């Protein structure tokens, strides 16, 4: 019955879409980057006089209906490129036209001063969705000089960071597992290197990064709070290029060029840390009580693009990232201790894009994703009879996905666009597997069987521009989930509307419903690899959220180029989340053992479900281009959770609830060669659970039921009083980073020296707190004190990068 | 220029290498008022009513087992207009009274009030649940890897429907040791040995059972092993056939029908003991039903069934 209802709903939705007659001329073409020929996906094109417009697809292709006039001008916008006005009179419109945008160059100001259309205003104001300028990512100072898209995303309003230095992204009260992080359509489950201090993504080879935090398009699903969609750039089809950098902690290099000129290109990139070499050099040798570190991470990206015909494009891309931590201690006897912690993501995407006509195009993708964590420990000890006992423990958990995606884009008219698609993902989870081996005894294992589940979705989405001022986006996605006898079919309506009024004002509202069928269990919320991905089962329901958001925006400035304007947006949201899961009190990521003597322990024994609410107000003041650019982002928000089995059933603040969050980002072009940049961030402290008192706890002695002569109370135990879950607020976090980039150019070779100071005023920001005993002088009894552990003091960094 | 640059970098590096671990004194931690902690568990089968009273100690203060002991409180138990004051017993470090003066009855609600001379006053209430009879006691055996047999016992009972119920099954294996060489007089002097039967597991040591998701059904305990008492010096060796070990044996199966406060308090206490100090484990917050204080005032009722084992 549920299936039938959902099917009828979807059909009704499709039939309700209006089909409009066509009367205007059709203009088709490509938007490419000047110099490299790189296709620019998502570029906005608007007919200046009518306000009608479109966006380029992943190949940079567009089609646009224009009125029969000779004096038309199209305004082309794309994040990271100057806004360009293209007079159509210069082109013969019988063939597809090519529009070239030059990166990082400001074109001469034109005298035409068109009224901004709703599309232009909407893009400039970016309510609910933000396209990250990769050019700005490269200009913002970064920890140890490692440019990181996720850390720049953390500077945006509505997005909060996790602990010091981590790449954890918390969007509108959601946890880090509620972000759908896509790299060329492949989900990246653990987007971290080095315990979350660096993200898994190499910013040099990304073409676009889009963050959606509300008003989700129907094509996306499976996560509650955000979509971070990253696309790798296409290799240059004409010339060989390379770029790289040498930093304090890692180096990276990327090479791109044609395999078959104008038809097939390649892109190769690699990054390798040498942090482990430093620690190896600094820490003592193996004959020591200390465990020396052998630590490194690396990642590789590869992509091949092929234009099979004018209408067909094929691309294959892959990513492999790996982190490895090794420790070993050996003493004079044969005893030793070896420990290891490894994790890695692997993704591969095969994508075929086909344009059937100027109105209809499609995209098919086959995606593979794998994330795996391994913890190992091997200890050898000499027993009393001089035999060497070797004990080994291996813990493994992981997730592997195979996904098929297909999408159609149909441009019904210049005012109507329709997208329809379907996805199917086959997940295989291995929540945990522990194998204990004593080389002198048979091995024992406590492994959960792999869990196979199917997650799929079908969607339809419609864009409708009513005149110059009103834009409606409506969609319906239906998700389907199957795991053994457990199945769910859930419709997810999506709707957003924006309306332009006055001079450069825009008001927008949206409603979305999302379902999430895979969950992450986290003890720390810091992006540690011990975070465990688990599916929906008969005992764990899918998470569900609905969100309403509304905002108003205004562009300030008289320039014809919207990117040069200062934009102000104010947006509020309210979100409820049901069936959130969390560890039970006392639970840990390692299975506690057999739950009963008859049945094996299940990870579900460790979790409990509840609900959450989040509301907030976000302010963004932004200037994307010019001698001085940057933004101010401020968020005031409130997030609460309530779990029947946590905190005595009373509501509490999750760890990442943050009342105030402020980011100031400024980039100043001092001259053609020298650029100054700085960021200052402030955030309310995290909500933590810290003991405030101690007491002796007495329990009943049930044996008294057998023998009344027994003591009434059992063994007493000292316990800590926490006064409630997450009732303690850490100290506020604030930090100033400064950077100077000095560039030089010789022929086609560019090089840049960058000097960065992270945490310029050396603020001791809390990383974690710990209660520890302290012995004071004068033989006073020891007392317990609270220590704040900070991670990064002031860190100066020098970095060199080059491009040819 | 170069000298200035390198001096600046050197200065920044030196200032950065300060201690990243700092003691902090935060309001809210040192300003914690102390609270009273009360622990009392009553049942109709009680031979003595007992209450433990303690105070919390600020987390930074030195602490030992007798820290916070409260010896001068006024402890009162009331029911249906009748009240009983419990008196402090220095030997057992607890307040106690004779239940004959205020009998504990099934279905009755009792209120416990504790007041200290310095003005702290806390209270809690509980209702005594009815006894739930043990329906069956099942015996089974399991052959171990070494060929020995392990004898197991399990309780079953009918859960009352439409109410939340919680239980704690306990048991004892009471036996008279088999002694072929003993004289009649020696046999007459033999005293039965009592060994507890553990119905807990590694993750649920106390064996507490909830009827959550199984309301109104027949509930069972875990399988508990019959073992000779650990203090019995003549314990069976691995080669002993267990049933030849005793002359007479009885399994005493006891079912405590406990209230929700009892269940939640004891479950949390066990978790706290197991995971204290584990940095990866979520902190355990001990639930309390004591108004303005901490601890637990709970009730339970007992049913018992004896099964004589055949040889």
From TrEMBL, chain A:
Where do the TonB-dependent receptor plug domain residues begin and end?
146-223
Record-linked Gene3D superfamilies = Carboxypeptidase-like, regulatory domain, TonB-dependent receptor, beta-barrel domain, TonB-dependent receptor, plug domain
Signal peptide interval: 1-21
Indicate where this protein resides in the cell: Cell outer membrane
UniProt-recorded Gene Ontology molecular function terms: siderophore uptake transmembrane transporter activity
* Domain TonB-dependent receptor-like beta-barrel stretches: 326-759
For this UniProt record, the keywords arranged alphabetically read as follows: Cell outer membrane, Membrane, Receptor, Signal, TonB box, Transmembrane, Transmembrane beta strand, Transport
Keyword Transmembrane recorded: yes
Topology relative to the membrane: Multi-pass membrane protein
Q: Which GO terms describe its cellular component?
A: cell outer membrane
InterPro entries documented for this protein: Beta-barrel_TonB (IPR000531), Beta-barrel_TonB_sf (IPR036942), CarboxyPept-like_regulatory (IPR008969), Plug_dom (IPR012910), Plug_dom_sf (IPR037066), TonB-dep_rcpt-like (IPR039426)
Q: What Gene Ontology biological process does one annotation of this record name? A: siderophore transmembrane transport
Q: Which family does it belong to?
A: Belongs to the TonB-dependent receptor family.
According to UniProt, the name of this protein is TonB-dependent receptor
Organism field: Fibrisoma montanum
- Upper taxonomic classification of the species? Bacteria, Pseudomonadati, Bacteroidota, Cytophagia, Cytophagales
From TrEMBL, chain B:
Any Pfam family the entry gives = DUF4249
Origin: domain of life = Bacteria
What's the protein called, per UniProt?
A: DUF4249 domain-containing protein
Specify the taxonomic lineage: Bacteria, Pseudomonadati, Bacteroidota, Cytophagia, Cytophagales
């Amino acid at each position: 019955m549920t299936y039938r209802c959902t099917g009828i709903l979807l059909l009704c939705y499709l039939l309700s879409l209006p089909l409009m007659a066509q009367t205007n001329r059709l203009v088709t073409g490509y938007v490419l980057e000047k110099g490299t020929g790189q296709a620019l996906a998502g570029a906005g094109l608007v007919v200046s006089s009518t306000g009608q417009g479109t966006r380029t697809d992943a190949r940079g292709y567009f089609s646009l209906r224009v009125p029969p006039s000779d004096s038309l001008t199209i305004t082309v916008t794309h994040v990271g490129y100057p806004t360009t006005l293209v007079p159509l009179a210069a082109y013969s419109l019988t063939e597809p036209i090519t529009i070239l945008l030059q990166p990082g160059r400001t074109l001469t100001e034109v005298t035409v001063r068109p009224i901004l259309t709703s599309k232009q205003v909407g893009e400039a104001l970016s309510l609910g969705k933000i396209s990250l300028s990769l050019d700005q990512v490269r200009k913002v100072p970064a920890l140890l000089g490692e440019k990181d898209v996720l850390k720049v995303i953390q500077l945006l309003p509505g997005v909060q960071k996790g602990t010091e230095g981590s790449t954890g992204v918390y969007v509108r009260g959601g946890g880090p597992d509620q972000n759908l992080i896509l790299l060329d359509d492949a989900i990246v489950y653990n987007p971290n290197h080095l315990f979350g201090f660096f993200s898994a993504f190499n910013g040099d080879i990304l073409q676009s990064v889009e963050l959606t935090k509300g008003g989700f398009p129907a094509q996306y699903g499976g996560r509650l709070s955000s979509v971070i969609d990253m696309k790798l750039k296409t290799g240059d089809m004409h010339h060989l290029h390379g770029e790289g950098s040498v930093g304090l902690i890692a180096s990276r290099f990327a090479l791109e060029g044609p395999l078959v000129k104008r038809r097939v290109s390649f892109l190769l990139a690699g990054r390798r840390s040498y942090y482990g070499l430093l620690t190896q050099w600094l820490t003592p040798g193996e004959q020591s009580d200390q465990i020396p570190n052998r630590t490194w991470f690396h990642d590789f990206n590869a992509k091949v693009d092929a234009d099979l015909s004018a209408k067909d494009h094929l691309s294959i891309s892959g990513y492999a990232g790996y982190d490895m931590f090794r420790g070993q201690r050996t003493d004079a006897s044969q005893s030793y201790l070896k420990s290891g912690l490894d994790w890695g993501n692997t993704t591969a995407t095969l994508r075929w894009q086909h344009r059937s006509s100027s109105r209809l195009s499609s995209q098919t993708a086959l995606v593979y994703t794998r994330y795996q964590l391994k913890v190992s420990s091997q200890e050898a000890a000499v027993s009393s009879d001089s035999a060497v006992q070797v004990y080994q423990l291996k813990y493994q958990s992981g997730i592997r996905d195979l996904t098929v995606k297909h999408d159609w884009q149909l441009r019904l008219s210049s005012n109507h666009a329709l997208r329809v698609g379907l996805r199917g993902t086959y997940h295989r989870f291995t929540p945990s597997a522990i194998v204990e081996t004593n080389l002198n005894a048979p091995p024992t294992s406590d492994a959960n069987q792999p869990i196979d589940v199917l997650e799929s979705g079908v969607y339809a989405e419609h864009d409708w521009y009513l005149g110059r001022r009103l834009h409606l986006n409506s969609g319906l996605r239906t998700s389907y989930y199957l795991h053994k006898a457990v199945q769910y079919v859930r419709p997810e309506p999506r709707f957003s509307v924006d309306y332009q009024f006055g001079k450069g004002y825009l008001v927008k509202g949206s409603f979305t419903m999302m379902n999430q069928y895979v969950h992450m269990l986290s003890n720390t919320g810091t992006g540690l690899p011990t975070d465990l991905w688990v599916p929906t089962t008969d005992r764990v329901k899918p998470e569900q959220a609905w969100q309403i958001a509304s905002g108003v925006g205004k562009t300030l400035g008289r320039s014809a180029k919207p990117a040069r304007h200062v934009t102000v947006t104010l947006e509020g949201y309210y979100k409820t989340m049901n069936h959130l899961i969390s560890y039970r009190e006392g639970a840990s990521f390692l299975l506690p053992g057999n739950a009963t003597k008859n049945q094996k322990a299940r990870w579900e024994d460790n979790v409990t479900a509840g609900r959450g609410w989040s509301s907030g107000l976000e302010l963004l003041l932004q200037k994307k281009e010019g001698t001085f650019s940057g933004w101010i982002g401020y968020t005031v928000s409130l997030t609460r959770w309530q779990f029947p089995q946590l905190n005595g059933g009373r509501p509490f603040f999750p760890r990442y609830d943050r009342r105030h969050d402020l980011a100031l980002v400024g980039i100043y072009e001092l001259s053609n060669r020298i650029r100054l940049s700085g960021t200052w961030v402030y955030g309310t402290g995290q909500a933590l659970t810290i003991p405030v008192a101690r007491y002796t706890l007495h329990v009943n002695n049930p044996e008294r039921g057998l023998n009344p002569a027994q003591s009434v109370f059992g063994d007493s135990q000292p316990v800590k009083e926490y006064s409630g879950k997450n009732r303690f607020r850490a100290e506020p976090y604030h930090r100033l980073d400064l950077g100077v980039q000095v560039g030089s150019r010789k022929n086609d070779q560019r090089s840049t020296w960058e000097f960065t100071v992270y945490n310029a005023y050396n603020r001791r920001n809390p990383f974690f707190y710990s209660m520890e005993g302290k012995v004071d002088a004068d033989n006073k009894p020891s007392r317990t004190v609270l220590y704040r552990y900070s991670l990064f003091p002031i860190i100066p960094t020098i970095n060199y990068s080059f491009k040819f | 220029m170069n000298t200035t640059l390198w001096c600046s970098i050197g200065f920044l590096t030196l200032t950065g290498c300060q201690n990243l671990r700092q003691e902090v004194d935060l309001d809210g931690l040192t300003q914690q008022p102390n609270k009273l902690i009360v622990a009392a568990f009553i049942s109709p089968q009680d031979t003595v009513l007992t209450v433990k009273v303690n105070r919390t100690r600020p987390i930074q203060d030195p602490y030992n087992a007798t820290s916070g002991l409260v010896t001068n409180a006024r402890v009162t138990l009331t029911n249906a207009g009748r009240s009983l004051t419990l008196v402090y017993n220095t030997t057992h470090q607890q307040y106690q009274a004779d239940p004959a003066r205020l009998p504990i009855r099934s279905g009755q609600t009792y209120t416990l009030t504790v007041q200290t001379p310095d003005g702290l006053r806390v209270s809690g209430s509980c209702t005594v649940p009815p006894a739930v009879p043990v329906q069956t006691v099942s015996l089974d055996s399991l052959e171990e890897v070494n060929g020995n047999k392990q004898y197991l016992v399990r309780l079953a009972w009918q859960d009352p429907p439409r109410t939340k119920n919680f239980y704690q099954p306990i048991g004892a294996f009471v036996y008279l040791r088999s002694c072929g060489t003993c004289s009649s007089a020696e046999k007459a002097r033999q005293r039965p040995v009592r060994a507890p039967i553990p119905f807990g597991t590694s993750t649920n040591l106390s064996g507490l059972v909830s009827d959550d998701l199984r309301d109104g059904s027949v509930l069972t305990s875990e399988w508990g092993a019959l073992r000779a008492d650990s203090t019995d010096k003549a314990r069976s060796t691995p080669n002993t056939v267990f049933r030849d070990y005793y002359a007479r044996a009885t399994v005493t199966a006891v079912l405590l029908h406990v209230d929700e406060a009892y269940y939640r308090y004891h479950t949390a206490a066990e978790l706290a003991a197991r995971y204290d100090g584990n940095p990866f484990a979520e902190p355990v917050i001990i639930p309390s039903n004591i108004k303005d204080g901490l601890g637990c005032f709970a009730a339970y009722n007992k049913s018992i069934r004896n099964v004589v084992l055949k040889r």
